[in-house]
Write a structure and sequence with these properties.
The protein has 2 domains: 76 residues, Roll (Ubiquitin-like (UB roll)), CATH 3.10.20.30; 64 residues, [2Fe-2S]-binding domain (DNA polymerase, domain 1). The chain is 30% helix and 16% strand. The protein has 5 helices and 5 strands; from the N terminus they run ββαβββαααα. Strands 2-1-5-3-4 form a 5-stranded mixed beta sheet, sandwiched between helices. The mean pLDDT is 95.
Length: 155
């Protein structure tokens, strides 16, 4: 039996009817059409589905949609202001931190939470912050460089 819930995603309120076991990831992608949040492992292991949930990073594949009622959810689509990319997004582009792009949204969301809390992190703090985000294409060098560069111009 579906339950009607209200979600606040990227500053907008959505009313969605969901099955009790439907994940936040599936609602974001399937019901709201926001496909920037990637569906990787569906087990909370890869971090490609990372979103910001009440100011903290979560693997949206592990959060039931009903748990998000009344909470604030920010996805990769919510970072840009119109056509102006967020400084972290720009840094990823400028530093070549994007390869296949599958892990990129989760990495950027993890970086945003870190930089919101610590505007001048060390390389170790950056690596710790993205530790739950797996990437098969890079050695994380460009990713770390991009996040450190974003500290100079973050929103």
């Amino acid at each position: 039996m579906k339950k009607l819930i209200n979600l606040k995603v990227n500053g907008e309120i959505y009313e969605v009817a969901v099955e009790p076991r439907k994940t936040l990831l599936d609602v974001i992608r399937d019901d709201l059409g926001l496909t920037g949040t990637k569906k990787g492992c569906d087990q909370g292991e890869c971090g490609s589905c990372t979103v910001i949930f009440n100011g903290k990073t979560v693997n949206s594949c592990l959060v039931l949609a009903v748990e998000a009622e009344g909470k604030d959810v920010l996805t990769i689509e919510g970072l840009a202001k119109g056509t102006k990319l967020h400084p972290i997004q720009e840094a990823f582009i400028n530093h070549g931190a994007i390869q296949c792009g599958f892990c990129t949204p989760g990495m950027i969301m993890s970086a945003k939470v870190l930089l919101d809390k610590n505007p001048n992190p060390t390389e170790k703090e950056v690596r710790d912050a993205i530790g739950g985000n797996l990437c098969r294409c890079t050695g994380y060098v460009k990713t770390v460089e991009a996040i450190l560069a974003a500290t100079k111009s973050k929103d």
